[in-house]
Amino acid sequence: MPVLFRFERAAISLSSFVTGLVLWETIARSGYFPPAFFPDLGTIFSTLIDLIASGILVTAAIGTLSRLLFGFVIAAVLGVTLGMMMGRFQWVEDTFLPLMSIIYPIPALAYAPLFVLWFGLGNLPSVLMVILGATFTVAINTWKGVAAVKPIWIRSAEGMGISESGLFWRVILPASLPYTLTGLRLGIGAAWRVLVGVEMLTAVDHGLGSLIFGAQKFLNTDVMLSGIIVIAVIGFTIERLVFELIERRTLVRWGMVTT
Amino acid sequence: MSLSRAQVKFLRGASGIIGAAVAWEILSRSELFPPGFSPPLIALADAAVRMLSQIDIYIHILYTMARVLGGMALAFVIAIPVGIGMARSPRFERFFIYPLSALMPIPSLAWVPLFIIWLGLGNATTLLIVTYAAVFPMIYNVWTGVRAINPIWIRSAGGMSASRMQTFWKVIIPASFPYMITGVRLSFGRAWMAVIGAELLAATDWGLGRLVFEAKEWLTIDIMLDTLIIIGLLGLLFEKAVFQTIDRLTVERWGIVKASD
User: Looking at the complex, does the CB of residue B177 fall below 8 Å from at least one CB of chain A?
Assistant: First the structure.
């Protein structure tokens, strides 16, 4: 395949960016939609700046992120524990796998109305849904990771007289880490998608989902798009920066995968 | 008497499910929630029989399935040219990579309010939300799949004077097929959540998500829980029956991946 020169790469990236913006602006000014339905770029930009300056977007983003992190930390602990147990003990795997394969295909979001009835509106149902959305993904990947640890590593560690806890911390945990990290990465992605939906359904006090959904009543499409931009930035950051950093610090440094 | 491995496995699996059922029954009778908010199993079974003996539930299922499959078909039609284009042309790849990485991390449901304003409540909105949810895993897998084709296959097809069309149909499509199936499979998971969410939010007349929403309004929790179980079973059916059959009929038969794994 031909290799592009640096200049050409930059030019194409720029043209892609400009095409997107021009396309949006053309539709906005064409009059096909009323301006309130399809705001032009200037309006979106100034609304975004206003919302950030007034602190509305910042509080909403902090609210959403703290729900995500709180729920995800619990889901990660539960999921890794369950996955490790399933990988290490045959009876745990046998007992939980059939149950999990029934619960897993129900999208966590579908529980939203039930949880609202049970726990009321507010933070509790959304955090619970984050936990529900992420735990099984983390557990299944961790379980696969433990199953993929080479038996010879375990046997040689045992041959060198390692204790049960030493075996866990120094062999099984690091050896299954590539799978566990994949599980955590997929899990936080699932949790993120569920959370945005749940915030719309349960109208939490400060949240990006409820901000977007609330804006629908007043046809504030510029507010919605500002919210979507912030959602994109947060989603991108979680996906790229956080997990790539963890991977570089652990797997790549230990020589388990090459970049 | 000693049990075989399969019997032990079955008994343990059954005890897990029975354990969950007993836990539910205890919760249901504990009066932790107001009466009717966590109906006992017998009420769930009763509601299930009532639901399944009427035509409505099947129409709900048909609507949801049509939206999922329609949205995924639309996503597939978009993903194939974009994914293959990105894999085959570096200019094409450059052009699309930033827009895609900007749109990909936005959950499809975040677009629901905007799509409602643009397109109104109903099928167009739900269909597009499903398409949005499904398209990114598909593009990503088609792109990776075509890039992963052994270049020697394409070169030897060219050496045997295969035309571009022949190379496309006889080499590129079958060789990247395992990745495409993975893409469809992953996007089904996303699409399945998106359709339920979109039906909950962009309330239309029919659909399983709509049924859950209505059950909340009428406080018929037994119907809501049965609908959740139906949603789970349909998802499981798709994952197990449909995708594994496709795998067996295509990729394994062609010998592209070993049938063993």
Answer: no
